[in-house]
Amino acid sequence: MAFHIYNTLTRKKELFEPVEPNKVKMYLCGPTVYDFFHIGNARPLIMFDVLRRYLRYRGFDVRYVVNITDIDDKIINKAIAQNRTASEVATEFTRAYFQDIDKLGIERPDLSPRATDFMRDIINTIQQLIDRGFAYELDGDVYYEVEKFVGYGKLSGKNINELQAGARVDVDDRKRSPMDFAVWKSSKPGEPWWESPWGKGRPGWHIECSVMSSKLLGGTFDIHAGGVDLIFPHHENEIAQAEGASDCPFVHYWMHNGFLNIEGEKMSKSLGNFFTTREILAKYPAEVLRMFFLLKHYRSPINFSEERILESQQALERIVETLKNIDLILADFQDVGAATDETIANQKAALIDAMDDDFNTASAMGTLFELVKSANLIIAENNFTKENIVTLKAIRELLVDVNEFFGIIPDKSSGTFGTDESFYLDMLTEIRRELRDARQWGMADTIRDRLQSIGIELEDRKDKSIWKRNFNKK
Questions:
Q1: Which of 171, 263, 332, 365 is buried most, with the most CB atoms less than 10 Å from its CB?
Q2: What is the pTM of this model?
Q3: CB-side exposure of 174: number of CA atoms within 13 Å?
């Protein structure tokens, strides 16, 4: 299977060849659990959930790890501000994180390691870095000596000689170079700590991901993913640590999703445009949010706005209502036989080609909408020849099939997107049918006209009435 990925490390699109045939080991940088995660964090969580599902759909055995950073400056600062322990803060927001990814329809990772559970491994790796000459100790702190790692900058493309002192790195006059970064921090009064050969302290953020990913996926694994904002310094430092502690290449393919802006501006609490995923989910269904992200290529920047979300909702409604109408029609045609349609098969191949071309969900969605358009044309014309019924059945099977990785069509029993509206439209359609049976034509026509004014068309059949959406009136 020819699946290609744009590799940030090589800056080109490459044929994906896993370390082990038919097995994929994949790591995504997860949340630092000091607050509810924001809408920008939701993008990699959703997109790489879809990638994991797609790789599995294509026949790969996928081992997917998303870490939890449960010890960090942000957690400690929040704990101090609230007069709580860091562990209490981390526990609260770890629970919230799992609640929110469940609401988003994100499948739980195979493993969700917590940094505090890997403290012995972290300490051992730091000692290896010291023994190999890549790190040094200063008064209980341990720093990685960047200039000792020849490949530093290979992921981000940055030249070490051009990096300025203090640029996203803690300024400390004791360090051998301003660019050296902490892998172990000595404890301050009131902070959590662990015993180590260098005294009481805790790990730096970068070393946590290097150790957890290597321990759970092996010295060299296939895909490391995250937001583009993590390329430097986080992922650059991960490489330096992992490859400095061993003689193995760390990761073969690096995948990074683009930035998310709010109404064209960078999300910021100071601008008043900072939204948690939990806040967005209180207003919009999870499936709509998934659709919003899938309509854009994962590497492209994306603009979050009310207009774009409503467009995503309408696009999803079109798919859901088309499926509903196909089901109603197929109920009257039980003996159709196998759904073999060459045109639909070709469209499926085009959709898969798009997904295989650097995970191009936007192009794949375009093919999906063509399928929906074809189905709605048949339905609108009431042209239910045997050939067209086979086509509708093939379209339905394909929509359900690809939802295995897109995860946008809600389960009818889930009580989520579209359920309330469908319930009331079904009820109004039935009431109108009863009015017609009772020859109360005036009231029946009023219901029909009111529904028609909002883009809902009613179709009367021999033994029942059905409703369907007229998307030309959207």
A1: 365
A2: 0.86
A3: 12
